[in-house]
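Weekly structure sync, notes
Attendees: PL (lead), two postdocs, one rotation student
Agenda item 3: pending single-chain targets
PL asked that the sequence for the first pending target be pasted directly into the notes so everyone works from the same version. It is reproduced below exactly as submitted, 158 residues in total.
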Amino acid sequence: MDFRLAPEQDQFRDAVRRFAEKHLAAGAHERAHASGYPWDVAGLMATQGLLGITIAEADGGQGGTLMDAVIAIDAVAAACPRSADVVQAGNFGPIRVLAEYGSPAQKQKFLGKLLSGESVAARRSTVTFCARRPRSSPSCEIPTPSAASEAAPAVPTR
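Predicted structure, written out during the meeting:
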């Protein structure tokens, strides 16, 4: 199996690396220790086309592959790991679920702001862990969340 990048992928990686060195490396340490989401970086990444790499062009994305997004994350992380988090959030997780399975109305409502760096998608999950019990014990019961906790929070924006 050949794990070398194709020439186009090498060119893409090099271009993203140059961008990250020029625009992100200088503030990397401060960004790593800052609280909050780096909205300035999100806007910069959107302008550069690094948000929505994995999203279809018809939905406002770049129409690239998962590997393209991984290459971009790696190249940005070499200069500024915190900024690579922004690229990851703009290509994987909730944004991909929305792009793949969202209705046209949901895409219309949310994707534009996500791809422009104006908002970020998040996913909330409640996990209940149960210790292994003897056969004579009742099974683990999962509590039902209250109506308030079932409501999905608004998409965070600046």
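Discussion points:
- Residues 146-155 have pLDDT under 50 and may be disordered.
- The helical segments are 7-23, 28-33, 39-48, 66-79, 81-89, 94-101, 104-115, 147-150.
Action: rotation student to compare against the earlier draft before next sync.
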